[in-house]
Design a protein that fits this description.
- This protein is α+β, with helices and mostly antiparallel strands and about 60 residues long.
- It has one helix at about 35-40; strands at about 5-10, 20, 25, 25-30, 50-55.
- The chain has one domain.
- It is about 15% helix and about 35% strand.
- A three-stranded antiparallel sheet has the order 4-1-5, covered by helices on one side.
- The two termini are about 25 Å apart.
Length: about 60
Amino acid sequence: MAAPLHAVSLINARTGRPHRVGGAVLILFTRNPVEAAQDLMRNRDPDDWRVEARAFSLRTPI
């Protein structure tokens, strides 16, 4: 069975707002949120940034 899918975002610790690229919120979808968090935090000051990961469900309406 595959690991659950997560939506991982980079959050500005001072404002609480998500990081944006070209006006769009940066969200990574991954089955390995720890690795994604490490990648997002590379070369960033942890006093300025935090990572938020939430389980993401792909549900198809019946």
